[in-house]
Amino acid sequence: MRKGERWRLIGLVLLFAALVTYMFRLAGEAYDRRFTPLPYSYGQHQYGAKGLARLLERNGYTVRSLKRTFVHLPDDADMLIIFPLPASLEGFSLTQFWTEEDAEYLDGWVQEGGVLVLMANDSRLPEAFRTDRGRPPFATPERRFMNATPLWNPDWMAGIRSVRMGDFGRLQPNPDYPWVPLLGDAGGATVALMRYGNGYVLECADWLWLTNGRLREADNAAFFLAFVKQVLPKGGVIYFDDAGLGDIILDEESAPRGFWGYAPPALRVAFAHLVVLTAIVMLSLGRRFGLPLPERPRHPPLGEYVDALANLYASAQAVQPAFATILEDIRRGLCRQLGLPSGATLLQLIQSLPPETPLREALTEAHRALQNPTLTEGEAIRILRRIAEAQHSQRPD
Asked: Is the pTM of this model over 0.90?
């Protein structure tokens, strides 16, 4: 192998190893957020909120995902739904990306007419929106459920009998702000409403009741849809705080760009496999792997050899010497083929062949022709061709 080919082969091996390593890293990240047990607006897990998003869309509302902090809430937002932060992300200080400026912006946005739906009580919220439940921000889903009944009967809640909710405790709103209990039981309120400036804040003690697994129970969907239609009668744009659940974009530079940014992880793995396969196929078609095999020398057919030597000797008017030279080559080849000594004469070669075979008859005629001083060029070529045909017919298929 030449030095240049050796370096090219080493480069190919290193490239292949790098691509395989990259594919394994992508495979490790190839998870789909839609099936994680978190209330994403696009989540299809039983704890996801895709069912709620589809319910709102079927009733004429536009649902979008907020993947940035509160200060980046778009101007077209009419409602923001905030689910509780997962305890795992809270432990990794996810809330550090939300500053006091975010809380102030959210406070001002609600006062100007925004509608805030809270399933959580965390440090990102303004002081006016926090309630004391005596529970962690994102409690593990409990097996105990309770039926919350209306504690107030406005016209828009007509027909609502009960809402099936997880038993996460009862709300204890800040007494400095006017909270109106909507749903609850003898133990206290589980859903409360506050008029804040020109907007509204709906506080819920449970987050499970609006997830895919619980939305169809009792009057869960009917109550929430009635509330949305009451505060947004002409439709609007509703955002889900998916950033608070971990699907966050910190700045414009980290936003997805182009095919690689928007492609799902599984598609990236498949694309990397395709690149590796294409590189291997292209290289294997254009260059051999390993040492090149030497080509076998081409032996011209005996007829071409006869014609060439005959023409050479014919030009010198020496047919007999040319015939003897070619016949000597034939004798040596047949001796090697039959295992006879290399010094065996043509007569001994003929005697070693089976009687009445085409090759023996052709060699016998050639032996007689050697004794003919008037051998012509055409006769010599005919005899040699007869020998070649006899040799060909005697070879095994």
From this structure: no
